[in-house]
Specification:
Number of helices of chain B: 6
Helix content of chain B: over 70%
Low-confidence stretches of chain B: none
Number of helices of chain A: 5
Largest interface: A-B, 49 and 26 residues
Number of strands of chain B: 1
Shape of chain A: globular
Distance between the termini of chain A: 38 Å
Number of strands of chain A: 10
Radius of gyration of chain B: 21 Å
Largest sheet of chain A: 8 strands, antiparallel
Order of helices and strands of chain A: HHHHEEEEEEEHEEE
Shape of chain B: elongated
Order of helices and strands of chain B: HEHHHHH
Helix content of chain A: 10-25%
Radius of gyration of chain A: 17 Å
Oligomer: heterodimer
Low-confidence stretches of chain A: 1-45
């Protein structure tokens, strides 16, 4: 990687202008030991993540590949409908980001008929329904797989702002 | 500087998981379709213009149909890459991209309307140029 690319990858404003720079962030980020130590303390000892990088496009147009988000990892229960959440995808060792389409107690209409979500379950969908792999594929998600609630986009520059329900 | 940005960069990758591999685009489909349009114009030119033989009429209609279809494929393939793949930073490096795509799509329309070897050659060249721009952004 060029020196310019390396610097660019670190700065959201520049990363947006240098093709591929954002994609290089994971490699870099993984080499940043201790960078969450302070916020871990603030978070009452709960391990992050606090800052995440979005890859893949199923949350288009709300989120785009390369977005830098602040997330709150102190949540224990499913937040209200419309909230964007980070969770461990069922049946996969993958951190996924989708939107809460329905929460505990709600009834969801599925291809196999209606199901009522139990107090631990949420129905998670990607905003770009046509390509998203989500609860329609792997069913309801239990709250023990919930990792964080996404609340703010801090990069790239020009796209910063609070994340809202659609 | 680097310590500050180290602190700012995300620590974790999260997937907005897609079922289909998104972000995989290739202008080869458009190029092949443009080649097909040119080839159909060539084949139509080889049919005896005065022939009323059923076989010739059949071949003529088939060639025209395939030409229509593939000009439409060119439009579709180019439009998808144009709208879904290209980002503002690509436009900065290729400020005339929109004009070029617009002209290319009009050229595809012209190839549907006419049987014109020159227009077909122009379409192939325009798609090649579009593909070159696409690949230049991958470097």
């Amino acid at each position: 990687m060029s020196a310019v690319g390396r610097v660019a990858a670190l700065i959201p404003a520049v990363a947006a202008r240098v093709p591929g720079a954002a994609a290089r962030v994971p490699a870099l980020a993984s080499r940043v030991p201790g960078s969450t130590a302070v916020v871990d303390f603030v978070g009452g000892g709960r391990e992050g993540p606090w800052r995440v990088l979005v890859v893949e496009g199923s949350m288009h147009p709300a989120l785009e590949e390369g977005d830098w988000l602040l997330v709150d990892p102190t949540v224990r229960d499913w937040p209200r409908r419309g909230t964007i959440v980070v969770f461990r995808e069922p049946g996969a060792d993958l951190l996924s980001i989708k939107r809460v389409a329905a929460g505990p107690g709600d009834v969801v209409r599925t291809q196999d008929g209606p199901i009522r979500l139990d107090p631990t379950q949420a129905w998670l969908l990607g905003d770009d329904r046509a390509i998203s792999r989500d609860s329609r594929e792997y069913g309801p998600v239990r709250s023990d797989r919930l990792l964080a609630r996404a609340w703010f986009r801090y990069g790239p520059a020009g796209r910063t702002g609070r994340l809202t329900a659609p | 500087m680097s310590r500050l940005t180290d602190w700012l960069a995300p620590t974790t990758v999260v997937h907005a998981h897609c079922d289909i591999p998104c972000g995989i685009y290739d202008p080869a489909g458009a190029q092949q379709a443009a080649r097909t349009v040119a080839r159909m114009v060539e084949l139509i030119g080889q049919i005896d213009a005065g022939s009323t033989a059923v076989a010739d009429r059949n071949k003529f209609i088939r060639c025209v149909t395939v030409k229509e279809e593939h000009a439409e494929i060119v439009k579709h393939e180019v439009q998808v890459i144009w709208s879904d793949y290209f980002k503002p930073e690509h436009l900065e490096a290729n400020p005339d991209l929109h004009t070029k795509v617009w002209n290319l799509l009009k050229l595809a329309g012209k190839n549907k309307q006419n049987i014109d070897a020159e227009a077909a050659a122009q379409l192939e060249a325009a798609v090649k140029e579009f593909a070159d721009i696409f690949w230049s952004t991958k470097k």
